[in-house]
Amino acid sequence: MTRTDRTRRTARASALVWALLAPALPRAAAAALETFVEPLSGTEFVLVRGGTYRMGDFDGRGLAQERPAHAVSVSDFHLARREVTVAQFRAFVAATGYRTDVERAGGVIDIDPVMRAPVRRTGVSWSAPGFPQGGDGPVVWVSWNDAAAFTGWLARATGKPYRLPTEAEWEFAAREGGRDSAWSGASERARAAEFAWSAENSGGLPHAVGGKSANALGLFDLTGNVWEWCLDWQEGYATSALPREDPRGPAEGRFRVLRGGSWRVGLDIARTTYRNGYRPDYAHSSIGFRVALPADVRI
Question: Are strands 227-233 and 287-288 parallel, antiparallel or unpaired?
Answer without folding.
Answer: parallel
